[in-house]
Design a protein that fits this description.
Elements (H helix, E strand, L loop, with lengths): L3 H5 L1 H11 L7 H6 L3 H12 L6 H20 L4 H4 L8 H17 L2 H5 L2 H7 L5 H17 L4 H8 L1 H23 L5 H20 L1 H12 L5 H30 L3 H19 L6
Helix pairs in contact: 4-5, 7-14, 7-15, 9-10, 10-13, 12-13, 12-16
Protein name: MFS general substrate transporter
Main location: membrane
Pfam family, one: Sugar_tr
């Protein structure tokens, strides 16, 4: 039951999603592209809380129809078009920009902590198995709660500043976590490590997390957005695979000093975003 129930209980959330799926409407763009123009108009009207014949509804629908007509005239974009700068929109540059936050999400070291948090608490900080699980569950609950506030301020302060502040905070926290894990015999160090693991996750959710999932779609031209975003998502999960596979080896080889690596990488994100990141908000 120790591992079966935590896995099985996730079925509950899948069932909730399945039950809500019938209430999800198709996007106006998809409907218009499949010759369901009036349905597309109705969805736009519902989203804007206006009548179907409202001028704003008609305007947005016409924009969608014009875009679809242009795309059909130009044809389906090729992968060569995605990976070249020899276009007016410099697609390769945008693909690399979009991949950046996706990869920063993983290379911040977040899943070196999330995937192995209970193990780290028990093995390196001396907590019991039950206490380790309790602390991990509290940390992940806090993680979920703190994922919401960025949507209240991210457009006001911008993507670049959000991710730079977030990265700097993560770097500082990783330094303290690495230092605390290096000395396992003092209880104060264990408390310090736990506190800054929680704070690290807060910093991560304050900027890196929301920007990583919104930025790519904002910088990609509509014509190649699907393919470009797919590349970004692939880079994200490929990075996740590497981080998760390397972490046990790193912990076994150098112990708590392993987290110095993530501290350095998080610190590098700040100048990378400052010099190469472009702002999309506003």
């Amino acid at each position: 039951m120790q591992w079966r129930f935590p896995i099985a209980c996730q079925i509950i959330f899948s069932l909730i999603v399945l039950m809500l799926c019938p209430f999800i409407v198709e996007t106006p763009r998809w409907l218009a592209k499949h010759d369901q123009v009036e349905n597309a108009r109705h969805v736009i009207a519902r989203l804007l809380d206006k009548s179907d014949n409202d001028a704003e509804v008609t305007g947005q629908l016409n924009e969608i129809l014009d875009t679809i007509a242009t795309e059909e005239e130009d044809g389906e974009p090729t992968w060569n078009e995605v990976f070249t700068n020899a276009t007016k929109t410099r697609n390769l540059h945008r693909v690399l920009l979009g991949m950046g936050p996706y990869m920063m999400n993983q290379w911040s070291g977040i899943n070196s902590i999330c995937y192995y948090l209970a193990f780290i608490l028990q093995q390196y900080l001396g907590f019991s198995a039950n206490m380790s699980l309790i602390l991990a569950s509290v940390a992940f609950t806090q993680y979920a709660v703190f994922s919401w506030p960025p949507f209240l301020y991210i457009d006001r302060i911008g993507r670049r500043k959000s991710i730079m502040i977030s990265s700097a905070g993560c770097a500082v926290c990783m330094v303290i976590i690495a230092g605390s894990l290096g000395i396992k015999t003092i209880k104060a160090n264990s408390a310090c490590a736990v506190a800054f693991i929680f704070l690290y996750m807060d910093f991560f959710t304050s900027g890196i997390l929301p920007v990583s999932w919104s930025y790519s779609a904002e910088v990609q031209p509509l014509r190649v957005r699907n393919k470009s975003t797919a590349i970004g998502v692939f880079s994200h999960w490929a990075s996740n695979f590497v981080v998760v596979m390397v972490t046990p080896i790193g912990l076994q080889s150098i112990g708590g000093n392993y987290f110095w690596i993530w501290a350095i990488i998080c610190a590098i994100f700040v100048p990378l975003i400052y010099f190469f990141g472009v702002e999309t908000s506003g």
